Structures are given as C-alpha cells and as structure tokens.
Amino acid sequence: MMNFKVLLSGSLFMVLCGLWGFISNYKHLLNTLLSLEFLMLGIFWLVSLQMTSLGSEIYFSLFFLTFAACEGVLGLSLLILIVRSHGNDQFSSFNL
Predict the structure, then answer these.
(1) Which of 34, 44, 42 is nearest to 72 (CA)?
(2) Which domains are delineated in the chain?
(3) pLDDT score of 95
(4) How far apart are CA 39 and CA 36, in angstroms?
C-alpha cells in the first residue's frame, strides 16, 4: 500500500510539473509542446496506476497512449510549418 501511495504522489507531481511548465514557458512553441508531452506522460501514468489498482483491462491506456502520440506528431508538424514560414518558434513574432 505504501508503494502505491509513493507512485501516485510521483505521478501527481509529474502532472503538476507539466502544468507549471506549460503555463510558464509560453514564449517558445517547442517548450510548450515538450511540457504538454510531459503532462500527457504523467496523466498516462495516473491512468495506468488506476487501471491496475482496479484490476480492469489496460486497453484504455493504450488508446490514450495512441492519442498522445498523435498529438505529439501534430504539434511537431505545426512547429516545422511555423519555423519554415516565420523563421523561429517565438510567439512574439506572430501577427494575429
């Protein structure tokens, strides 16, 4: 039981660090994408811990991991498109 509490607190810490990184690194698109991926990894860890503690199937976590990978690919493709068109990934160089 103690080991589960340590894993749960570690995964919650990962989620909070990912949120803090997403909020504080708003100047560069690459930093925000990396913090989003870290946030998704923490949420995946929480979901997998919850699924294993309930004794249910882990297929939902595989679906979540697939969607997280698709989100990462879309983010990187947008980053490449923005860097090619604007020259950098700083949000201050965009004209909205």
Answers:
(1) 34
(2) 2-93 (1.10.287.3510)
(3) 66
(4) 5
pLDDT reported for residue 39? 87
Average pLDDT over residues 11-27: 83
Identity of residue 46: L
Q: Give the residue among 19, 36, 22, 27 at the shortest CA–CA distance from 70.
A: 36
Q: Tens digit of pLDDT for each residue in 40-58?
A: 888 888 888 888 777 777 7
Residue 89: alpha-carbon gap to chain centroid: 19
90: left (phi over 0), alpha (psi -120 to 50) or beta: beta
